[in-house]
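Quick one - first record:
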Amino acid sequence: VQLQAGGGLVQTGGSLRLSCVGSGFTFEDYAIGWFRQAPGKEREFVAGIRGSGMSTTYADSVKGRFTISRDSAKNTVYLQMNSLKPEDTAVYFCAARSMSVGLGPFEYDIWGRGTLVTVSS
């Protein structure tokens, strides 16, 4: 995973879309997970998608608000975030692992640099 983009500042209730572009590996063979880490907190799972794109997993805290998708032609995974809340404020990371989606950050061995999302109240 080489590039992330799309973070920024948004008001409560607003939307952002994060992008994660993979390179240097066979993208369709890897599941992609999005994680986030707020100041003073542990990194937590947000959403994941299998290499095929046929299966997605979400944390309870974002279900119904966030949507993960992938465009294999562009080697890109997106995280569409709607109805954002101040508690969504964090640095968001995407990560890749072979085969299925994992829920723990230790299960991933390729990481993006992270992008900051700030939701103002």
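second record:
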Amino acid sequence: VQLVESGGGFVQPGSSLNLTCETSGFIFDRADMSWIRQPPGTGLEWVAGIWSDGAAANRQSVEGRFTISKNSAKSALYLQMNDLKIEDTAIYFCVKGTAYGLNYDYRGQGTQVTVSS
């Protein structure tokens, strides 16, 4: 199993970023997937998830700003992040095995998102 994130960066508050997770080594259509993050100096937190049937959910603090989606033909997972806030600064990871919470079985290497003025 391989999960490779990209799309992070250094942006100002109010900006947008689109994260991508390219996957291989498993049947993507059958997997529940999530984005999780680790803010500086704190532990991991679940951000958004999408079940194999396409249903999705977000943590409350990103509701209306972040959108998780997937492209089964490309075996790719996305996280569109709009109106970024300083508190969104974190390493963002793509994980397989869960669409809610931190009970995943594989995790990518992460991509850094820094929001600062």
